[in-house]
Amino acid sequence: MNVRTRAALVLCAAPALLSVAAPAREPLPLVTLERACALLDERLHSVTLDACLGAGLRTSADATVRSQPILWRDYYPRQPHGDPRRILLIGGIHGDEFSSVSILFQWMQRLDADGSQPFHWRVVPCVNPDGLLDRPATRTNARGVDLNRNFPTPDWAQTALPYWKRRTGSDPRRYPGPAPLSEPETRWLVRTLEQFRPQAVVSVHAPYGVLDYDGPHTPPRHLGYLYLHLLGAYPGSLGNYAGLYLNVPVITLELPQAGLMPSAEQSAQVWADLLHWLKKTHVPDTALPYGNPRPTGGLWQTMLPSLLPFPE
Hints:
The chain has ten helices and nine strands. The protein has helices at about 5-20, 35-45, 50-55, 100-115, 130-135, 155-170, 185-195, 240-245, 265-280, 295-300; strands spanning about 60-65, 70-75, 85-90, 120-125, 200-205, 210-215, 220-225, 225, 250-255. Helix 4 links the parallel strand 3 (about 85-90) and strand 4 (about 120-125). Mean pLDDT is about 85; it is low at about 1-20 and about 295-310.
């Protein structure tokens, strides 16, 4: 089968791919915002109850496996000119990467104070609260699924589980789940992508201390002290799904340590460089094929599992 024929088959299968394992109706969270913030305060030294409650966060309509809400907030430019570009900023997709959650609370304070930034941000400080709040914290969600391997990339059924078995030795920390979108957290994030339609996605991880990138346009050479080191795209990863399949730039910031925050100077410089790159890199709305996703040339290479140095 040639690439053109295979691409046509993937596009025809895309609607079914997005509906895999999705229940008719997601359960509602049973945990209030106040309780969710109290749990974060207990877990993270750098996030206080008052700071969380004062951050203007909203709770998702859908629950995680353990009935937690996913907290999020929109930030709008104070002096908009036309339709501001939309940026999705997420952390904590792996629950044991504490710094990826804490730094987003720090950057939310910057967004509150910055009267000149030009973007419409949607900030999700912790996609995987169940993993974060577990004792000990876990990379996976409460069902033992690595959420960053559960996105509906093309050929997921043919590649995700074989890759997990052959390349990771069935490492339980990287289990992609029984099917794409099997997890409520992943389904919520895919719906957020479809509804918010970001023109760039910024995902914060730890602890490899590099800058990764997937998707169109030329990546930044560095953001602060994080230098570009392309890690590759994995079956079911967000970089593969959003960056290569949906054709949206995905900037992945790998902080050097999962349990320790960068210094204030390092955090500020990464943020400043990120804003600078987003301002100078124009991603038109027409580059977002959410309703008609298409494979790109590099996508098919990522479907051939390869041994890469650092898994996201």
